[in-house]
Write a structure and sequence with these properties.
Layout: E1 7-10, E2 13-17, E3 28-30, H1 34-42, H2 49-66, H3 73-88, H4 96-113, H5 119-155, E4 162-166, H6 181-190, E5 194-200, H7 207-218, E6 223-226, H8 231-238, E7 242-245, E8 249-251, E9 256-259, H9 262-271, E10 275-279, E11 285-286, H10 303-306, E12 307-308, E13 311-312, E14 325-328, E15 336-339, E16 342-344
Parallel strand pairs: 4-5, 4-7, 5-6, 7-10, 8-11, 10-15
Antiparallel strand pairs: 1-2, 2-3, 8-9, 9-14, 12-13, 15-16
Helix pairs in contact: 1-2, 2-4, 2-5, 3-4, 4-5, 5-6
């Protein structure tokens, strides 16, 4: 069965799978401009650091394709930078959109300085750059899957099949396709080395139960859903071999910001002597941030905790604390950080940037 596709782009037409409607409905919605993309990202109709960057950049490509070339390259560059700066504000913790914006602005500057390139050609080159992100991300994800599966199998060479725990959603719904942590799980399944995946529900937004479980069932990968509060018991009961999670931002020292609840899984994995992996493209590593203390943590609306849809599930008037992410210290990432370039210990990242 084909892997789920959450981002559809063809010849300037962009559609995304509205993840707020999963698992009840698979509904694609059009993204006509940067403002549509910003709203979809902010409302979490699309989420996952790689997917955020891809949808943001493709929305700009959609706009540029419809736009008549400005009079000067300087004017084009200003327009592109303004749009990208706006997109970066949609979800501040995920670094991929920020780095994608920096790369595009750098290209704009190079094109502006190149006197042999006219405005129309510069616009076309920027659009091609933005559109290439989709295919590049899928290739990176498949490489992450292969590197991660190989490393986990090597470190569990005496075991015929493996039991893996994962958190949040890191699959096709969070990327251009295939996935990061879930991509590793897909590769293990393809190699016939996967016994069972244990996915956490991932409160309060239930990305695990709504999205990861949906992907696993869709692709007939053997899986069991557990509540977040069952993680320690599940590790002990089912003899989990490894925990694999994604990342929204990795600091230079390997500290990793990911969906809230990741930190506690790392602590529990350490206590149970279970390998803990982070799977992320190199674009999620922010070498400008020295450690996790400097990573901005987004706080989400209280209604995500107090309501399920329109139904109130918490006492009216209760105060809430709802950070979207937490930071796992590098020393708890015992398996390594899985990237498209290979698997590295947290302190080995810098030489490979």
């Amino acid at each position: 069965m084909a892997t789920l596709q959450a981002i559809k782009y063809n010849d300037g037409q962009l559609e995304i799978l509205d993840q707020l409607l999963l698992p009840e409905s698979c509904t694609f919605i059009p993204i006509w401009n940067v403002e549509d993309a910003w709203a979809a990202i902010r409302e979490m109709k699309v989420r996952g650091a790689p997917a955020i960057a891809i949808v943001g950049c493709l929305s700009l490509a959609v706009e540029l394709r419809k736009l008549a070339a400005p009079e000067t390259k300087e004017e084009l560059c200003r327009l592109v930078q303004e749009k990208l700066d706006y997109l970066v504000t949609s979800r501040p913790t995920a670094v991929n959109m920020h780095l994608a914006a920096e790369a595009c602005v750098k290209l704009c500057t190079q094109l502006t300085d190149n006197t042999s390139v006219n405005v129309a050609e510069a616009k076309d080159d920027i659009v091609k750059h933005l559109e290439a992100m989709l295919a590049n991300d899928i290739a990176d994800n498949r490489a992450i899957g292969e590197h991660g599966a190989s490393d986990i199998m090597k470190k569990n060479a005496t075991k015929d099949k493996l039991r893996i725990m994962t958190h949040c959603n890191t699959g096709s719904l969070a990327t251009a396709g295939y996935g990061t942590a879930l991509g590793v799980i897909r590769s293990l399944h393809t190699a016939n080395k996967l016994d069972q995946v244990y996915c956490t529900e991932t409160r309060p937004y239930n990305q695990g139960s709504r999205l990861t479980a949906f992907e696993l069932v869709y692709e007939k990968i053997p899986a069991t859903l557990v509540c977040d509060s069952m993680a320690a018991a599940a590790m002990k009961q089912f003899k989990i071999d490894a925990v694999i999670v994604g990342a929204d931002r990795v600091a230079a020292n390997g500290d990793t910001a990911n969906k809230i609840g990741t930190y506690q899984l790392a602590v529990l994995a350490k206590s149970h002597d279970i390998l803990f992996y982070v799977a992320a493209p190199f674009s999620s590593i922010d070498f400008q941030i020295p450690n996790g203390h400097s990573i901005p943590i987004e706080e989400r609306p209280h209604s995500e905790m107090t309501h399920t849809g329109s139904i109130r599930t918490a006492a009216a008037g209760i105060n809430c604390w709802n950070p979207g992410f937490d930071v796992t210290p590098a020393e708890l990432i015992t398996g390594g950080i899985i990237t498209e370039k290979g698997v590295f210990k947290p302190d080995q990242l810098a030489p490979h940037q």
